[in-house]
Structures are given as structure tokens and as C-alpha cells.
Amino acid sequence: MSTTPNTPDFLVVIPARLGSSRLPRKPLADIGGKPMVIRVAERAKQSLAHSVVVATDSPEIQAVCDEYRIECLLTSADHPTGTDRIAEVAQLLKLPNNALVVNVQGDEPLIPPELINQVAQTLAAHGDCAISTVAVPILDQAEINNPNVVKVVLNRDQEAMYFSRAPIPYLRDPHAGLTVEHLRHLGIYAYRADFLQAYSRLDPAPPEQAEALEQLRALWNGYRIAVYTASEAPPAGVDTPEDLERIRRLVGRS
Predict the structure, then answer these.
(1) DSSP label at 204?
(2) Residue 74, Cα to own-chain centre: how many angstroms?
């Protein structure tokens, strides 16, 4: 994966909260002597972002960021989604409407910096889109039917038509000799700042509530989402204690 010299000016925001049902206090989990949220921020700093900000509702996380000299903003504890938290950051920083903001999940300590650059570059290249994100080809057939794997279908302009936990596109006749590419959606986004302010005022959409996928709120309301298709998936993030141990082993060998 590579970027061009025209990579645009952008900001990275990392939403981080202590509450997690599957892995309590996840942002502060130790990985090779550093809290996970710090590992994520350090990876983001290797991108071409002009600044990296952690957004949290936890004074404890803010204190850890201060210790490592990572910029951190304390935000409301009432945000239902990470996107709402990032929208507050855009307000606090008084970002201009055309500013590009990349959302890097706080549980991605091995995210490639080049992927961060690419999602920003994709949004800059699609002037009519409010959001950009990333997908990768699904190579394991079991993932197509796995509801924990979010799929996306694109149009010919490489924009999202729909996201679903169901197998889309559905191959009605597997014996018809058709070749269908299934794409897995990765949870990294770039937004235009004016969209973030609009998003915080939008009501949840019926497809969003059915699928539990907040990006469907944008599509439901007519916003366009550009999608960069990467050749391979980055290292998986941390959702469970088993994931955490896997990351610890990888960091220990690096």
C-alpha cells in the first residue's frame, strides 16, 4: 500500500472509552509496557497526519495520554457512538467545514500508518463524498456468512451502495458460472468536518438499527461514502482477551 505526494492535510482522532463488555478497561491494557491507546496513537503519529488527538470520557485515560505527551480531549460521557465523540472534537477544535478527520479505532495497536494516509487520500479524491472507508476482498468463504464480518457492495465509482452483516451480494444461483467478489468492510473512516456536525443531528435510521451499523445512517440520509479496496487486511484489532494476548505476542517479537 502506498501514498502519493498529494496526500492531503488531515487530523487523526482516536475515540477511547473505558467501558467495554468483552474486555473491561481495554484502552489501558498493557501491550509491551505501554497502554494500548498509546500504542494506537504512536502508530497514528507515523502517518502523515498533522496532529493526533485521543478523545475520551475518562480522566484516567487523559492522565495516561498526558504522561506520554499525547494530545487528549475530554469529551461527554453521553455519546452513543464514536462518530458522535469525534463530532464533539471537531467542535472543540473549531475545525473548518472542509477539514478532513480520520477516525482510528482505539483498539487497533498495529494499524498500518499507510492505511491511515490512504483513507484520507481517498476522501480528498472524492469531492462529492462526505466519508471514506476501506474494504478488503474476502478470501475465506466462512466469513461471507459470518454476521460478525461486515460486508459492503460498491458501485462503479467505488462508492458504497450498502453495508450488511448478511452475505451481500447474494449469489442466487451458485451454478450460473458467475464470479462475485465479496468485500469485508474495515472500521477506519475519514470524514469531512461539516458532515460530522450534521451527523450528530441525524436520527438513527431503520437499517442502522436493524444491522447495528452506524454508517448506514449516512447512506440513509443521502451521504456518499467512498471506499478504498486494499489488497490485504491489516492485523486484526483487539476485541477479546484472546485478541489481546495475540497482540502481545506479536509486539513481543517485534
Answers:
(1) P
(2) 20
C-beta of residue 152 within 8 angstroms of C-beta of residue 162: yes
Q: Is the backbone of residue 236 left (phi > 0), alpha (psi -120 to 50) or beta? A: beta
pTM: 0.90
Rounded Cα distance between 55 and 13, Å, is 7
> CA-CA distance, 174 to 158, in Å (whole number)?
25
Cβ atoms within 10 A of the Cβ of 1, count?
14
41, 111 contact by CB (below 8 A)? no
Give the closest residue to 89 by CA, choosing from 77, 69, 73, 104: 73
Closest CA relative to residue 215, chosen from 231, 199, 239, 232? 199
Burial class from Cβ neighbours inside 10 Å (0-12, 13-18, 19+) for residue 144 reads: middle
Angle at the Cα of 116 from the Cα atoms of 194 and 235, rounded to 5 degrees:
135
Residue 36's nearest CA partner among 145, 112, 122, 111 is 111
Quick one: cell of 55? Answer: 478523545
Cell digits of residue 41: 496513537
Q: How do the pLDDT tens digits run along the chain, 254 residues long? A: 444 446 789 999 999 988 766 678 889 999 989 999 999 999 999 999 999 999 999 999 999 999 999 999 999 888 888 888 899 999 999 999 999 999 999 899 999 999 999 999 999 999 999 999 999 999 998 999 999 999 999 999 999 999 999 999 998 887 777 888 899 999 899 999 999 999 888 999 999 999 999 999 999 999 999 999 998 888 888 888 888 888 898 887 65
> Which phi-psi region, left, alpha or beta, contains residue 131 (left: φ > 0; alpha: ψ -120 to 50)?
beta
